[in-house]
Amino acid sequence: NLAGAFELGDIKALLKEWVTSISDPMEEDILQVVRYCTDLIEDKDLEKLDLVIKYMKRLMQQSVDSVWNMAFDFILDNIQVVIQQTYGSTLKIA
Amino acid sequence: TSKGSAMSNFFGKTASRKAK
Asked: Which residues does chain A have within 8 Å of residue B5's beta carbon, measured at their own beta carbons?
């Protein structure tokens, strides 16, 4: 779970609050999102992972702060490595 | 309450807020 949130709706709301209320994301928060996504991979919940990543991509790439774009790239890179190790292929993010 | 590092980041704060 992410900061006590389990449901996709709660996760999305939390991510939106994070991206819209913070201009300079902390490394600890970014790592926490990576850990949450890694847990989804371990739980084989790739459908939820896909939705979470696509939502983050929309949120973070909409942001005028380039630091959020970099944060998304960092999160995605880390997740793709874990997926590659677990499934032998990467997730296609359209 | 103490102000540990977990309390100063966004998700740490949110988690402690929800726990109350």
From this structure: 28
